[in-house]
Design a protein that fits this description.
This protein has a domain of 96 residues: 2-Layer Sandwich (Alpha-Beta Plaits). Helix content is 46%, strand content 34%. It contains six helices and four strands, in the order H-E-H-H-E-E-H-E-H-H. A four-stranded antiparallel β-sheet has the order 2-3-1-4, sandwiched between helices.
Length: 147
Amino acid sequence: MNKTLETTISKQRDKSIVAKNTYETLLILDSNQYARDPGGVTKTISDLVEEAGGEVLVNRLWMEQKLAYPIDKHQKGTYWLTYFSMEGTGLSKLDRAFALCEPVLRQMTIKLEPRLVEPILANARGENIVVSSTAEAEETEEATADA
C-alpha cells in the first residue's frame, strides 16, 4: 500500500471514531428581543447548533431575571437551556456563532456525563424520571449488604 492511501484510510477511520457527546448550553438572551420574537430567537439558536453539526435534543426557557451586573447595558436577561449532541470538534464553531449572534449576551457550554444524559433530558422535557427496576434492585442489595 502506498503512503497516501494509508493516510486517507487512517483519516477516514479517525472521523468515524469521533463520538458524539451530549452538551448543555446555558444562554443569557436579550430579554427585549426574546419578548418581541420568542419563536424567531428560538429558531435562530436551533439553526446555529444544526449549522455547527449538532442535533438539538431539547430547547427550553429557564427563567427571566435581573442580571447581577449589566451586560452590554442590559439589566435583565432571559436564561435559555439548549441540550444537543455533536462531535466535540464542532464546539469552537458553535461558540463563535453564539458570540456573533445578536440576541445572545453570554453563553456557557458543558459536556454532560453519559450516565446522566437521559435523566437530565427527561427533566428538561418535563417528564417524570423513572428509575429502572434493576437499578432499584442493585441499590436495595447494596443497602442490605452494608447493613
